[in-house]
Specification:
With 151 residues, the chain is mainly alpha-helical. It has 2 domains: 1-53; 58-151, no CATH class. It contains 6 helices and 2 strands. The chain has helices spanning 2-9, 12-53, 64-79, 88-101, 112-127, 136-150; strands spanning 59-63, 107-111. The chain is globular and about 30 Å long.
């Protein structure tokens, strides 16, 4: 109630300043949304390229610990709600394929396509803020190793 009284007592100049501030905040939010959409469009274009480039089913033999760490990246991202509901089925598919290729042996053969999918999911998680600042160095190390394997 006191807010209503205070607002009615404000001068037209103060109300005008508040309206300008609201418009400026609205414009800033609109610009942020537009920038975010542009980033996602650019990111999606790159993702499509990567998927098309790695259609061949070559395999790489990798250590089990490394593969389990990659699997953990997906676990953390999903638990933190990084992915959109429409993306969950594809993420589950990539997760299950990686999980199937991890054997009890010290090393496992994993397809390049699955590794590329994990790389894409990691990029999405990082770009959407799925990891805490203190985790980024470890995530970056895993990402760099994964990138080297794919080259």
């Amino acid at each position: 109630m006191s807010e209503l009284i205070e607002k009615s007592v404000e001068s037209p100049e103060i109300q005008e300043v508040q309206e300008v501030k609201e418009i400026s905040e609205s414009n800033e939010n609109t610009q942020n949304v537009e920038m975010e959409i542009k980033k996602k469009e650019e990111f999606n274009e790159v993702v499509d390229e990567k998927i098309i480039d790695n259609v061949i089913e070559n395999k790489k033999e990798l250590k089990k610990d490394f593969l389990l760490s990659l699997k953990k990246l997906i676990d953390v991202s999903v638990a933190r709600g990084v992915f959109k509901p429409a993306e969950i089925s594809n993420i589950g598919k990539a997760y299950n394929e990686l999980n199937e290729e991890i054997t009890d042996n010290e090393t496992s053969e994993v397809t390049i396509t699955n590794l590329n999918n994990i790389k894409i999911l990691t990029e999405m998680s990082i770009s959407r803020g799925g990891f805490l600042p203190k985790e980024l160095s470890d995530v970056g190390e895993l990402y760099n190793l994964l990138t080297q394997v794919l080259e």
